[in-house]
Amino acid sequence: MRAVSNDSISALVERLLPSSRVPIDIEGIVRSLGISIVFSLQSDPSRVAEARKGVQNRYSIVLFRDSDEEKELSPAERFSLAHELGHILLDLRYGLQPKNRDQYWEAEEWCDSFAAELLIPQNAVPRNHISLPLQALAILNEVEERCRVSHEAAARRIAQFHSGITIFAGRIEGAENRKSDLWITWVAPSTPESLVTRNATVTQKTEIGRHLIESLSDSSDKITYLFNSPTLGRGIVRRIRRCWGLREDFIVCILK
After folding, report:
1. What structural domains and CATH numbers belong to the chain?
2. Comparing 187 with 12, which gets the higher pLDDT?
3. Which of 31, 65, 78, 106 gets the highest tally of CB atoms within 10 A of its CB?
4. Backbone dihedral region of 56: left (phi > 0), alpha (psi from -120 to 50 degrees) or beta?
5. What is the reported pLDDT for 42?
6. What is the secondary structure of 66-100 as a DSSP string?
7. Long-range CB contacts (< 8 A, 24+ apart) of 37-45?
């Protein structure tokens, strides 16, 4: 997998995009490559899309839905379509297929980056100077609406163009007076050392959480986070709840 660097993404995107006008016509791009798009009924919410290779090396991408109602693609489906296109291109152009778990997760990260860059061209990300987290979140909403992508995809691209920014989403579960768990669902870092991949170990996640907890300050324009871990203690979760007023689902930004 390491034979294909992230630098190759920009070259691929440049060849694929007929124009940088947003929202990108991802369905048109996929079909222009001779790849069919198939919709399939599926009740399992964890299954969104799947790339398939058929006879005579003909590719298709299956989008799973819970109903046969005809409707335009959702932001999640658009990203999944672009992500699966990334897998096809890894196979078609580079002959690369993951052979082990590490290569699998490496391919997933590459395809995530490819999908974000394809759906969110450079000119779609405002370059305004960001001095407050609320400004970053306003840009996040703008990119999400203009490009018809998810918060996560928009955050990935914003973090690429604005150094010193980390945007992440999470959920607090449990009543305030009882045990509460703080879960992180995704993180969009601006520096590789803060990257948390989906296959990170509990120890790695805990250490990242500890590091960020130590940076917790009294300033109202900063926030920190942790991964759920018994070693971190419920007192820290209560402290973050009290200081920052987090409730259930949330998206926050850290400025370094």
Report:
1. 7-119 (1.10.10.2910), 130-255 (no CATH)
2. 12
3. 78
4. left
5. 83
6. SS----PPPHHHHHHHHHHHHHHHHHHHH-----S
7. 37/61, 37/63, 37/81, 38/62, 38/63, 39/63, 39/64, 39/65, 39/68, 40/64, 40/65, 41/65, 41/66, 41/67, 41/68, 42/66
Return the pLDDT at 230: 39
The Cα 141–Cα 120 span in angstroms is 13
The reported pLDDT for the residue numbered 137 is 83
User: What is the distance in angstroms between the CA of the first residue and the CA of the last residue of the chain?
Assistant: 32
Is-above-0.70 flag for pTM? yes
Question: 233 or 172: which carries more pLDDT confidence?
Answer: 172
Angle at 115 between CA 38 and CA 157, to 5 degrees: 150
